């Protein structure tokens, strides 16, 4: 069976005795990961079946969300295992080379980019912070109301029997109920917005870099409703505890706001610097 | 509805605890893009389709809510949606007043 090289990350050589890639760390396609050292850089890769990672196969599989999920988890399993002992520079999902020679050529051709990024990220990890406006009713209401012209739609919904939940007796009751919900919802969102701003500006002082991601779609597996802030912070490894403590301190008690801290992650969100996006992205695409 | 806020609960991202959405947004969207010597440039196209499917809805919904700051500085986040809501509230109030006048 022919095999190709699935490359997870590039890193600096690290102490072999401290190798974080134990036997039980399984990567993409259930394969173990190995290291390929070349001229001061190390590629972390798995040997995977060629027929599963050909152009044609990938075209189909990338559209298969179950395959995508398993592959993403395998990819992250290896990258995050590395984070324990080294600073891995994560590559985009499904970076594949034909053989070891191809991996070496890849390391050579990307050497400048890899070296610069590894220097910048050395000893840093990524922490994720998300803020949620909680209250399922409010968020559903908001989603249900999306795009509707409120006045007309409300009346039509009340008369046409498409209103959800407890059916109000009259159009007037419907409107009152709707307005109450709207006011409550607006309050929670406004508060989530305020908490997010405070968190982001305070945490940015702790972090060397920060990235604000799009709020997560609740239809994504594992994602919750009402995501307002979805940010990543680049923090020196040894400051992780202080960072987590700061998040705790800034989390308001007993409100409809939930703050979620994840990490430490490999510095995924900071692998490509935003300072020179044109040069870096343009050169690699 | 008040749910007590939960204290941050960090976890190692490699464990089964990491949620898939967090992983997907990192491995699909971030990380260095290098063309391996198998021509996987198709990724730029194929992954884009997936990403759009997963992400577009959230972007539009967030924009409706006036939350568009991931594109910009948080301090520039738009208050437009909030203004819109106030106007909508005002319209609803007038409508109730009218209905109450009718039934009286």
Automatic annotation (TrEMBL), chain A:
One of its GO terms (biological process) is gas vesicle organization. It is found in: Gas vesicle. Keywords: Gas vesicle. GO terms for cellular component: gas vesicle. InterPro entries: GvpL/GvpF. Pfam families: GvpL_GvpF. Belongs to the gas vesicle GvpF/GvpL family. This is Gas vesicle synthesis protein GvpL/GvpF.
Automatic annotation (TrEMBL), chain B:
The keyword Magnesium does not apply. It is found in: Gas vesicle. Its main location: other. InterPro entries: Gas-vesicle_GvpA-like, GvpA, GvpA-like_CS. GO terms for molecular function: structural molecule activity. The keyword Ribonucleoprotein does not apply. It comes from the Bacteria. One of its GO terms (cellular component) is gas vesicle. Keywords: Gas vesicle. Belongs to the gas vesicle GvpA family. This is Gas vesicle protein.
């Amino acid at each position: 069976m022919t095999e190709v090289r699935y490359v997870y990350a590039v890193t600096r050589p690290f102490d072999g005795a401290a190798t974080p890639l134990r036997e039980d760390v399984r990567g993409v396609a259930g394969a173990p990961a190995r290291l390929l050292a070349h001229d001061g850089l190390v590629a972390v890769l798995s040997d995977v079946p060629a027929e599963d990672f050909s152009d044609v196969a990938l075209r189909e599989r990338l559209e298969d969300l179950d395959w995508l999920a398993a592959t993403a988890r395998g990819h992250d399993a290896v990258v995050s295992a590395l984070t324990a002992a080294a600073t891995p520079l994560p590559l985009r999902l499904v970076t594949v080379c034909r053989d070891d020679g191809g991996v070496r050529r890849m390391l050579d051709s990307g050497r400048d980019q890899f070296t610069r990024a590894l220097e910048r990220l050395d000893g840093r990890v990524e922490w994720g912070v998300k803020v949620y406006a909680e209250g399922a009713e409010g968020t559903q209401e908001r989603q249900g109301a999306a795009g509707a012209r409120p006045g007309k739609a409300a009346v039509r919904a009340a008369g046409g029997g498409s209103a959800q939940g407890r059916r109000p007796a009259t159009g007037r009751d419907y409107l009152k109920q709707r307005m109450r919900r709207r006011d409550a919802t607006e309050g929670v969102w406004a508060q989530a917005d305020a908490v997010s701003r405070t968190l982001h500006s305070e945490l940015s002082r702790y972090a060397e870099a920060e990235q604000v991601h799009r709020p997560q779609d609740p239809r994504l597996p594992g994602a919750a409703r009402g995501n307002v802030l979805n940010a990543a912070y680049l923090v020196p490894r040894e400051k992780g505890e202080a960072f987590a403590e700061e998040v705790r301190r800034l989390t308001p008690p007993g409100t409809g706001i939930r703050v979620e801290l994840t990490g430490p992650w490999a510095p995924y969100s900071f692998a490509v610097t935003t300072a020179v996006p044109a040069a870096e992205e343009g050169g690699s695409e | 509805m008040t749910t007590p806020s939960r204290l941050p609960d960090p976890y190692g991202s490699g464990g089964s605890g990491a949620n898939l959405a967090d992983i997907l947004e990192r491995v699909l969207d971030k990380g260095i893009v290098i063309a391996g010597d198998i021509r996987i440039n198709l990724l730029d196209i194929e992954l884009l389709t997936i990403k759009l499917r997963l992400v577009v809805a959230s972007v539009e919904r967030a924009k409706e809510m006036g939350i568009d700051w991931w594109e910009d500085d948080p301090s520039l986040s738009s208050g437009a949606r909030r203004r819109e809501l106030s106007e909508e509230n005002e319209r609803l109030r007038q409508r109730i007043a009218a209905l109450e006048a009718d039934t009286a």
